[in-house]
Prior knowledge:
Blueprint: E1 26-30, E2 33-37, H1 41-58, H2 65-70, E3 82-88, E4 99-107, H3 108-113, H4 125-130, E5 137-145, H5 152-168, E6 173-181, H6 189-198, E7 214-216, H7 227-232, H8 236-244, E8 247-248, E9 251-255, E10 260-268, H9 274-280
Parallel strand pairs: 5-6
Antiparallel strand pairs: 1-2, 2-3, 3-4, 4-5, 6-10, 7-9, 8-10, 9-10
Amino acid sequence: MEMQVQQPSAKSLPLPFTPGQREPHTFGKIGSLEVRLATTRTEVEAAQALRYKVFVEEMGARLPLEAMQQKRDFDTIDRYCDHLLVCDTALGGEPETRIVGTYRLLRQDVAERHDGFYSQSEFDVADLVGRHRDKRFLELGRSCVLPAYRTRRTLEALWQGNWAYALEHRIDVMFGCASFAGDKPHAHALALSFLNETVAARDEWTVRAIPGRGLSMDMMPVEAITPRAALTAMPPLVKGYLRLGALVSHEAVVDRAFRTTDVLVILPVKQISGRYINHYGADASRFVA
C-alpha cells in the first residue's frame, strides 16, 4: 500500500461524480448491513476517515503530512475509483456515520484513462494486463473494516458487493495487494512459503514485483511447512481469497509507509469456486433485498 510522497488536497480532487449525479445502488443486504457504492463526496471522505482509523491509528501507517492532519487516508487515485461501502443501517445519524467497511474498486478502462493501477507501484501489473488483452481487469484495494464489525457477515457483505460490481461491469479478473502486518517478511515465513508452494501464479498468470522491490516467498523447505499452522498464521482476508480460488505472486513486497508485507492476489473469475458462486448467486442475487 505504498503512498505517494506528495499529494494534492483531497478537496481539490474531482471525483468521478458530483453530489446528486449518482443514485444509491444497493448491491445487497445481510441483516442490518447494506453494501453499495459511495454517492457523495462526504461519503468518500468518511470512507477515507475509516481507512485512517484502521491503517494509521491501529496499524501504525505513516501517511503524508496533509493526510495525517486531516485524519483521512487519501491519494490521487481516490478521485477516479468507485468506493464500495458496507453500512450498518441500524445505526442512527447521517448515512456517512453508518459506514463500517470499505473497498476501493478500480476498473481497467478507468485506470487506463487516468494514472493507472495502484498496485503498479509494487508489482508489474502492466505486464500482466498486457498479456491478457482479451480480459477486463478490476483492482480491489484499501479493504478495511472497523474492529467491532470484523465478522463473517461483514466479509460476506463486502464480497456480495465485489461480486455484483464485477458482474455488472463484465469483469474477467480481480486482483490487488493483500497485506500481512509488519514490514519484516521473515516473520511470515511459514505463511508466505505455504502460499508459494500451493497457490503461486505460474505461466500465463505470473507476475513479478517491480525491479528492486521483490522478495522471494520460498523461505522454508517444503517438509517444514505445516498447512494448518500456515493457514492459522494468515490474515483472514488472504484466507478468504484462497477459499475463492485465488492465485498469488511468488514474490512479496515490503511497504514501509504502511508497515506491511504485500503479495499480489489474482482471481480469474472463471476460477472462482463453484460453491461460492452458488452462495452469492451466479447473478449476484443471493443477498439482494
